[in-house]
Prior knowledge:
The protein is an alpha/beta fold. It folds into five domains: about 5-205, GAF domain (Beta-Lactamase), CATH 3.30.450.40; about 225-315, PAS domain (Beta-Lactamase); about 330-475, 3-Layer(aba) Sandwich (Rossmann fold), CATH 3.40.50.300; about 475-545, Helicase, Ruva Protein, domain 3 (Orthogonal Bundle), CATH 1.10.8; about 555-595, Arc Repressor Mutant, subunit A (Orthogonal Bundle). It is about 45% helix and about 15% strand. A five-stranded antiparallel sheet has the order 2-1-5-4-3, sandwiched between helices. A five-stranded antiparallel sheet has the order 7-6-10-9-8, sandwiched between helices. Helix 4 packs antiparallel against helix 8 (about 190-225), helix 14 (about 395-405) packs parallel to helix 15 (about 420-435) and helix 21 (about 555-570) crosses helix 22. The protein is globular. It starts with a helix and ends with a helix. Bound molecules: adenosine-5'-triphosphate.
Amino acid sequence: MDELESVSGGSRTARARLSFLTCDELPAGEVRRPVLASWVRSRRWNLAADRIDLPYIADPDLDLPLARSATPVLRRLHEHLDGQPISVILTERNGLVLRRLTADAQLSRHLDRVHLAPGFSYSERFAGTNGIGTALERGAPMHVFGHEHYAEDLEDLACAGVPIKHPISGKTVGAIDLTCWRKDAGSLLITLAKTTADQIRAALLRDSSAREQELLQEYLLTGRRSSDMVLAVNEDLLLMNANAQQNLDGSDQAAVLAHAADLLGQAGTSALAVELPSGRRVRITCRPVPDGGRGAGAVIQVTQTPGHSLTSVSANRPPPRAVLPGIVGRSAPWLATSREVDNAYRAGQWVVLSGEPGAGKVALARAAHQQNNPAGSFHLFDVALFDVAEAPDHFADDLEAELTDDTVQALVIRHAERLGPIRLDELVGALLSGRERRPSNPPWVALTLTTGGANEADLSELLTLFPTTIDVPPLRHHIDDVRELVPFFLSQLSHGDLSCSPEAMHQLLRSAWPGNTAELHQVMKHIVQHRRRTGVIVLADLPADLQATSRRRLSQLEALERDAIVRSLVDNNGNRRDAARSLGMSRATIYRKIHDYGIR
Length: 600
Ligand SMILES: Nc1ncnc2c1ncn2[C@@H]1O[C@H](COP(=O)(O)OP(=O)(O)OP(=O)(O)O)[C@@H](O)[C@H]1O
């Protein structure tokens, strides 16, 4: 596509958008790939394409370190723009607009009309393809011009968004966006947005270093005075001396941090005797480090106490912690899967993540990357973007470009089961040549396969390149995690005070969730969009089909058994006697279980 078309988001893009929305066609070659991928995501989230319809999320918190450090940078830029119709916008990492500076009254009124204003979220999940949300979703700078926007209401605008990463933790803390009229847009917009993001990062570093210095001083002093295990933490940092690194494994570290968080709720230095998950008995002393306003963090000292009584402390043992950031669920099967994915990432081992639709395959891969290489770049290559594409076809070129790009540290190839034989050959070729061309710095590659969605093509050659396959369990096999997923999704979606009543939760725990966690997410989203953003979700708020679920709730074990029976029946062409035999069950038992589980 030529530069002019890309910059204007013009008539060819408008036609491509229309055919995407009306005929379900993926106009590869007509539209830039990141835009097309974002359109597909926007459609998957059931967003309206004909209008922008955003909820007011919350009053922006301008006391956040990001807002405080960025404000002088934004003001300077605003002054330099000298009345030009360009709006300078700062958002939180979830797309919530914190500040908007616009000198031009007409542009300002238009932005109010499309809710691009403080308190509204321009996350892709609410607003569809746009400079802010799509940049945050991809973790990379993104300009979106004119008809490239998913929502028609945004077609007169052009925006260039850049995620802002914290200079110390490497985590994305927000985004900067420049928005102007589409007719005024040029490729310099993104350059200016990138420079502004760099200036905000420098300001964050300047402002945070004073706090970090305080914390570091206190940590070093404590380490010098004692031979204990010493840790220092704040929201961006975790420091640990060699003693702590050698003696506290992952779950002990998590337990120490959880106890320290509790202790920090008390004024001044406080201490607690506990038994850690490894069985080690210790005394944890937690000392807040002051630094003017918000505090610089806390220094934690962990002392071994062999003689300490166990009785008072066992009750304090914290529940197991999630293994990966942003991944919710502490049931044994889910933790085990999270650990496997994390280990494969650490070992640089290419993996296949296999499971039912929406089970969380990509989410696990993304979280493992986030945990081990937060500053590195993570790419998602969705095969679904190509399999119905007419022409021209960039599949092999695009894939090879991803695999040979030195800056890509992790690549997930999604929905590999949809590939036909020719595409499979191309994929194997691209993987082999990518590995050859980056021998010292190969990317971590994960392939997701949706069970039940396999085509006729033979995957065996492809699978020889992936030594490990990890089965991601369906949600009904770790159904207890619904208790945590529901509040997690509600806080993500509503940003308000929305909770779930015990009756509604009970009902959610009884569903079989054939669409897995993705389906649960959709249900929560539907509820949030159709009711007030505060209060309690009751039974009547649930979609009708969920209210009607009348079967009793199955335990994890029962869910596994039911699935094994279904699989065996399918393998034996519905013959109950053969199915019972291959499961080692009597015929009477299988008849009874088919009836009890309601298998048809
Ligand atoms: N344990 C979890 N904690 C938090 N969010 C989760 C978890 N599991 C899944 N999700 C969320 O659920 C949705 C679906 O997950 P994801 O896209 O990873 O599924 P998938 O198995 O890759 O789906 P598919 O194969 O159909 O493409 C995403 O929004 C993801 O962030």
